Structure formats: structure tokens, C-alpha cells
Amino acid sequence: MSTDLTLALRLADAADAITTTRFRARDLVVERKPDRTPVTDADVAVEDAIRELLAPTGDGVAGEERGGVVAEGRTWVVDPIDGTKNFLRGVPVWATLIALVVDGTPRVGVVSAPALGRRWWAAEGEGAFTLDAMGERRISVSGVRDLSDAYLSTTHLGSWVEHHSRESYLRLVDACWENRAFGDFWQHCLVAEGAIDVAAEAIVNPWDVAPFQVLVREAGGRFSDLTGAERFDGGDALSTNGHLHDPALELIRRP
């Protein structure tokens, strides 16, 4: 295991120690940011703790709550709680997302969802792994080769109306065998472990998806924006098992 991945897992441990104590806490403090999205005291505490642990490294940090940019060299991209709406409502589907981006490309990714008892991680050239109640194991994407056999997920259908094209997403839905809205981090992790085949999002921030570029790729799949560019900062996202990537892009591109 690389030194960077070891550090990323240690950061996730620190995050879990905070989020698990604040989840469903009666005194949880919730505020609304200028973009009307919620933020809790746990979000801020996690990011501050991660920044403190990273300070001795001299690496850059870009986080959802404290800001920062992904510059040349090494930058840690952090979403302290992905799925804050779930977190504040007591729904256990949320996670801390951590990625090390080197010269614009994610090299390490960790996703930790302690309320689900799940964690996923990957490092470039080292494969993708998960840990759950059944133990630790290496993961890989599915072998589904036809959209008519594919399981598809998105986050919120309304986001397609505002940010992309509802019709293009529904074309993809109609082409697939089954669809759900697992949403946020979980759907990309499910693609990486082969449980579903396609996950698409009409709008994302870099910290929402940075770990998945390396996680899905190391699991044998593909990750891109909705134009097909292999990047985490394009403003939208598509992860697939690889076989279905181009067919999905054909249907989902803006008409």
C-alpha cells in the first residue's frame, strides 16, 4: 500500500470518528449556505480535522467548506460529508470523500461511509478495494455489455431539467433494464464494485466526484464528464463498467 493511500485512509479514520458521533445528534447545528445547500457543524469539523492532519505535508487542500483550488502539484480534494441532506435527516447514506490529485489527475481515492459500515479505496496501479461486514476484498466492475441489460442510477431527476436535459436522461432510462436513484457517492461506488452498471449526474462539484475517477478506473471501468472527457472537474459525471460508456454518452449528450 502506498504512503499516500495509507495517509488517505488515516484521514478517513479521523473523519469517521467525528461524523459517527454527530450523526443523529440532538444538538446538530445546521445552517444554509449561499447556494441554499445545508451545512452542519460536522461538515466543518471534519474538514478542519483533515486540514490539520495534512498541514505538515505542505500539500494543497481544496474542500467544500473551506475552499481552495486544485493547483499544479499535489492537492487533496475533500468533501467532508457527501450526502449532507441524508446526514441531517438521519438517513445513513452519506460519506467522506478524499482524493489526492497530482497535476490535475486523481491518483488516490477513499470513500468512507461509516453509518453503512462501508469503505472503498483505490490508488493508481494498485487496484480498487472495499471493506464491509464480509471483510476486505478487491472489487471490479460488471461485465454487462448491453444497455438493455444495464442497471442505471442518478441523484436527482430535477437536476437534469435545470442543468442538462431531462429528455436525454430519460432516453438513457428507456434504453436500460432498470433504474434507481441511489444518488451521490453510493452510485459510483456501486458501479466500481459491479452492483450496478451506469451512474450519471447532471451537476457535480470537483469534491463530489474526485475519488471516483481513480476508484472506477482501478476497478476496470470508465469515468468522465458528460462530454466524454476523463476529468472530475467538468461539472457533471458519468461512471460505467466501460463497455457501456460510449453507448450511454451517445444517448445522454445534449441534443
From TrEMBL:
<comment type="similarity">
    <text>Belongs to the inositol monophosphatase superfamily.</text>
</comment>
<dbReference type="GO" id="GO:0006020">
    <property type="term" value="P:inositol metabolic process"/>
</dbReference>
<comment type="pathway">
    <text>Amino-acid biosynthesis; L-histidine biosynthesis; L-histidine from 5-phospho-alpha-D-ribose 1-diphosphate: step 8/9.</text>
</comment>
<keyword id="KW-0460">Magnesium</keyword>
<protein>
    <recommendedName>
        <fullName>Histidinol-phosphatase</fullName>
        <ecNumber>3.1.3.15</ecNumber>
    </recommendedName>
</protein>
<keyword id="KW-0028">Amino-acid biosynthesis</keyword>
<dbReference type="Pfam" id="PF00459">
    <property type="entry name" value="Inositol_P"/>
</dbReference>
<dbReference type="GO" id="GO:0007165">
    <property type="term" value="P:signal transduction"/>
</dbReference>
<dbReference type="InterPro" id="IPR000760">
    <property type="entry name" value="Inositol_monophosphatase-like"/>
</dbReference>
<dbReference type="GO" id="GO:0046872">
    <property type="term" value="F:metal ion binding"/>
</dbReference>
<keyword id="KW-0368">Histidine biosynthesis</keyword>
<dbReference type="GO" id="GO:0000105">
    <property type="term" value="P:L-histidine biosynthetic process"/>
</dbReference>
<feature type="binding site">
    <location>
        <position position="64"/>
    </location>
    <ligand>
        <name>Mg(2+)</name>
    </ligand>
</feature>
<feature type="binding site">
    <location>
        <position position="79"/>
    </location>
    <ligand>
        <name>Mg(2+)</name>
    </ligand>
</feature>
<dbReference type="GO" id="GO:0008934">
    <property type="term" value="F:inositol monophosphate 1-phosphatase activity"/>
</dbReference>
<keyword id="KW-0479">Metal-binding</keyword>
<keyword id="KW-0378">Hydrolase</keyword>
<feature type="binding site">
    <location>
        <position position="208"/>
    </location>
    <ligand>
        <name>Mg(2+)</name>
    </ligand>
</feature>
<feature type="binding site">
    <location>
        <position position="82"/>
    </location>
    <ligand>
        <name>Mg(2+)</name>
    </ligand>
</feature>
<dbReference type="GO" id="GO:0004401">
    <property type="term" value="F:histidinol-phosphatase activity"/>
</dbReference>
<dbReference type="InterPro" id="IPR011809">
    <property type="entry name" value="His_9_proposed"/>
</dbReference>
<feature type="binding site">
    <location>
        <position position="81"/>
    </location>
    <ligand>
        <name>Mg(2+)</name>
    </ligand>
</feature>
<comment type="function">
    <text>Catalyzes the dephosphorylation of histidinol-phosphate to histidinol, the direct precursor of histidine.</text>
</comment>
<dbReference type="InterPro" id="IPR020583">
    <property type="entry name" value="Inositol_monoP_metal-BS"/>
</dbReference>
